[in-house]
Amino acid sequence: MxxxxxxxxxxxxxxxxxxxxxxxxxxxxxxxxxxxFVVAVAQxxxxxxxxxxxxxxxxxxxxxxxxxFAIWWSWMNFTWFASAYDTDDDVxxxxxxxxxxxALILAAGVPRAFTDxxxxxxxxxxxxxxxxAVVQWSRAxxxxxxxxxxxxxxxxxxxxxxxGWLLRLALPDGWGMATFVVLGLADLLVxxxxxxxxxxxxxxxxxxxRYGLFTLIVLGEAVLAISVAIQTGVDAxxxxxxxxxxxxxxxxxxLWWLYFDRPTETPDRLPYSLVWGYGHYLIFAAVAAVGAxxxxxxxxxxxxxxxxxxxxxxxxxxxxxxxxxxxxxxxVRRQQHGAVVVAYPVVAGLALLAPxxxxxxxxxxxxxxxxVALTVVLRRRDDGAAPAxxxxxxxxxxxxxxxxxxx
Length: 407
Prior knowledge:
Number of domains: 2
Structural class: mainly alpha
Strand content: under 5%
Largest sheet: none
Number of helices: 12
Radius of gyration: 23 Å
Number of strands: 0
Order of helices and strands: HHHHHHHHHHHH
Oligomer: single chain
CATH class of the largest domain: Mainly Alpha
């Protein structure tokens, strides 16, 4: 017989959660947050596809980089904050729902940003999300004296930068890119400055899981983009797209395998956590761009694209190369050794050559399958040799416990 259910309060002091908390998993609210963000990711990928197919390559890349930065940065900041301070009271839930509303506003502004270069709606949505984050950080400053200096720096830094984003809307169009770079760098500097007094108590294992879940979401968006593009082509009577569909599916499956091949080494110190967290911008953006690129290839096969077959191939090859090199830097070089460490940049280089020949997408799929096969073979070999090599460490008395606070 179970006891009475705990009643969730309307408000409770925002105390830090333990970095050693066992079995820490994503909450339903965090999952809802991710699912709402996929709307913005889908809008960015769809508009990237249309711009590339129409031949507006420079505009496509510039708009996509800027739009995806707003999506990724808002998601990332919520994720790290929630890892440290999720109180799950009603005020926290309401504030998070306001942040989600900002994400939906941002998503609504993506088409206008791509077609007209008008970032007004995106900026409003972004500011709504970030100012709601200021409320959260202010609560953390009040409820967590040990990390009050960091929380205050976050609240002040985010507020100042949001004022900058709003003022940017009043500047002439020619200032758009320069001010974006300045304000984007200012946003990136806020955590680096705020965490210096003492890192906020985010949970390393929880952060690793959250990033893995968002990777799955953008992979799912790529699968959806391929499916819709192939369905449209088949409905139009082009039944020769099945080979392309199979190759596209293999590419997505291979990207999933390579990212989740081994348990993620979660960050536990400030310099590496910044590199690891920021570096995932390239992983997320690249995976979503792969889906957009595959739809460009479908357009090319249907003679609807205003770009060459080689350019369409590079719309897939470039994001694949970016993904491989980023995973190599963040995961492979730190955790693995031998041939697989060399294989990632080699395959990335070969991927950039694939669009120059025939069957571009099929060749890219074969390259990724070869890389997956190599990682599987070498992992099995390493796992077979691991017990003899690691057995002495099992009883090491001074081993650092997982998730220990580095501060």
